[in-house]
Amino acid sequence: MGRFVVHLLDKHIKSKVQYDMANLTKNTFSADLIRQAKFFKALSHPARLSILQYLAETKTCITGDIADELPLSRTTVNQHLKELKEVGLIVGTVEGVKTNYCLNTQAIKDFKTSAISFLGDLNIDTINCKK
Amino acid sequence: MGRFVVHLLDKHIKSKVQYDMANLTKNTFSADLIRQAKFFKALSHPARLSILQYLAETKTCITGDIADELPLSRTTVNQHLKELKEVGLIVGTVEGVKTNYCLNTQAIKDFKTSAISFLGDLNIDTINCKK
DNA sequence: TTTTTATGACGTAAATTTACGTCATAAAAA
DNA sequence: TTTTTATGACGTAAATTTACGTCATAAAAA
Question: Which domains does chain B have, with CATH numbers?
Answer without folding.
Answer: 1-31 (no CATH), 43-122 (1.10.10.10)
